[in-house]
Amino acid sequence: PAAEYRDRLDRVRKIMDAANIDLIFAMAPESICYLSGFAGHWYQAQSGKAFPPTSGLAVHRERDTTMHFETPSEAVLAHIGTHSPDIRIFPVGSRRDGLPFILQELKAAGWLKPGARVGLELYNYRPNPMVARRYEEGFKAAGVEVVDATHIIQQARHIKSPAEMACLEKAAELAEIGMAAAEQVIAPGVSELEVFGVLIVAMTKAGGEFSGIIPPVISGFRSNALHPLATRRKIQKGERVNIDLCGVYNRYHVNMARGFWVGEPPKEALDIHNRSIGVFPAVIEPMLKPNLEVLKFCEALRDYYVDQGIWDESYWSGGYEFGLAFPPDWVGSFIYDLSISKPGERFLPMTAVNHECNFFAPNKTGLSATIDTFLFGEKDARIVTTRPREIKVLHA
Q1: What's residue 337's pLDDT?
Q2: Which of 150, 232, 359, 393 has the most neighbouring CB atoms within 10 Å?
């Protein structure tokens, strides 16, 4: 609803005010969508020089509206698919270079004054370095100070509204559907790509959307890595199959990874897996609550794994923020583990993170990959993905 977008803008403006930033020109797809609802499938992120990414959303800390700048190619989509109250389309003659028009319009509206502090999302893949440099130089030539403001909208997005949390709940349901569909098709002679296709179809039939990362389906020796793309490789009897996917609803992501075994799994592989997932009832479920200290949580995880004798086999014990995302990534800005997290950091109310419980199994039999997503509410927290974590044995 429109009120949701007004509230988001107010939150961003308050953070801007605290950071003494007068204007942000946001170009990250997530930022534009967060403040306007605009969602497309092409953002010129890696296109040729003839198609530079120049569209974006201007936010002023003293104005209760935004200016949404778009190319003529997206004029229709901007008008029918957003809550943007002020949409300004580049002139056709300069449709590939919106910067002069953007600066002209911002100055004419009194949004861009000499001496102002202007924030650009410099720690972002869009725009590419050459275009980012040109925007930085263009704004500086207007007599303003340019600073990195990537963190401003990210900070606002970290705390979810009830409507956003509802989207995450729906995304979790879609993740469960995708994993269940994959289980039904995994068998000797079936390719990784076939499994991938089935899980995607199942989630989209249930109302899911494409995810920010292509979900991997990994079998055999390849399961010793966590990020291969699905291939035409045929799954064989006696192999592990790992699947890492996200359910997506209104661009909100919920992550889950589970392991399967075609045939009987080796005892050693089964043992380390069961010891690794034992952390959920032993540590995670008793500790999980809003405002939980991140380092305290990470240390408790490590202590459990050390006690189980498997800490040295850890691929990664940590996680990161989930929420609104577009390709090429679903990893949010808040990331936690023993090497990254700082004293005083907490899992705040109305946030969402995943937790990765990934360990190398003996004899190169692959990674024991288990990932779940946590939702922290105002008063409680829970693991929103509920599928059993034990290795699912198929065709034994």
Answers
A1: 98
A2: 359
What is the rounded CA–CA span in Å between residue 161 and residue 171? 15
DSSP structure string for 268-285: HHHHHHHHHHTHIIIIIH
CA distance 30 to 38: 9
The two tokens of residue 114 are: 């000499």
- Token pair belonging to 101: 């028009």
Longest dimension (CA), the chain: 72
* φ and ψ of 210, to 5 deg: -65, 145
Instruction: Provide Rg for the chain, Cα atoms.
Output: 23
Instruction: For residue 114, count other CB atoms closer than 10 A to its CB.
Output: 9
Task: Give the pairing type, strands 66-70 and 56-60.
Answer: antiparallel
pLDDT tier, 304 (very low <50, low <70, confident <90, very high otherwise): very high
pLDDT at 45 > cutoff 90: no
Contact present, 41 and 328 (Cβ < 8 Å): no
Contacts (Cβ under 8 Å, ≥6 apart) of 279: 301, 304, 305, 357
Residues in the chain: 396
| Pairing mode, strands 292-293 and 346-347 | antiparallel
pLDDT band at 279 (very low <50, low <70, confident <90, very high): very high
**CB of 368 closer than 8 Å to CB of 322:** no
- Give the residue from 293, 381, 297, 386 showing the smallest Cα distance to 343: 293
pLDDT at residue 311 in the model: 98
Closest CA to 240 of 256, 259, 266: 259
- The answer to whether the pTM exceeds 0.90 is yes
Contact 26, 121 (CB under 8 A): yes
Q: Which two tokens stand for residue 62?
A: 């003293």
Task: Output the six-digit token pair for 104.
Answer: 């002209």
| Closest among 385, 384, 373 to 331, alpha carbons compared | 373
Mean pLDDT of 58-70: 97
**Is the backbone peptide bond immediately before 129 cis, with ω within 30 degrees of 0?**
no
Q: From CA 347, how far away is CA 363, in angstroms rounded? A: 37
Q: Is the pLDDT of residue 24 over 90?
A: yes
pLDDT of residue 96: 86
Helical ranges in the chain per DSSP H: 2-19, 29-36, 75-80, 99-108, 129-141, 150-158, 162-185, 192-205, 267-277, 279, 285-287, 294-308
